[in-house]
Fold:
Amino acid sequence: MVRAVWELWPLLAVFMAVLVFFHSSEFLLAATFNREGLSWDSLLISQPYVIAMVGALTEFALEALFVPAWKAQWQISAAGMVLVLLGESLRKVAMLTARGNFTHKIRRRQDSRHNLVTHGVYRYIRHPGYLGWYWWALGTQLLLVNPISLCLFACVAWKFFKERIEDEEHLLERFFGQQYTDYALRTPTWLPGIPGIVLAQGGDTQYTHAMNRAS
Structure:
């Protein structure tokens, strides 16, 4: 059993490297494109996030100790690593495309330098940074072969992004008006169950009517 557990340490090392790269690169890109908003929060390490990752590591340790064979499913770990790389790449491409228009905190007031980005990856995916982060988060738990944390991460992250996107899109519709509405109608989020804009007035009904007109 001890030998089996020891053989899993490379997997844990890869996981830690994934975390270090994600958070350090987030901070670096924030420092490059949004220096005035740079803070320790730019590392994207919050208390709920730490609790979630500690829980994931606890699950990994307990399952590695008592059922190490579960963790030796290298095909699942490989699939998780692929998802991590896809999510990381998508998010970083989104940040590099949006440049100073990408911020870790939702803009509550319109800035004269704030432009609606609809080119590049944004032409095909609305909120590609969120979709990339979602893939990345699920990929980390597949990498560790953590079935419990995978389910929890999927549910909690989905709820977080649903609420955040609804909040953000109210503001974007207010900032950019019909320009944003038209963009939202033609560009999906590709996040399951988070289909579209929630307008400041009219809500889902107005969205449905607009979709009908567009079709």
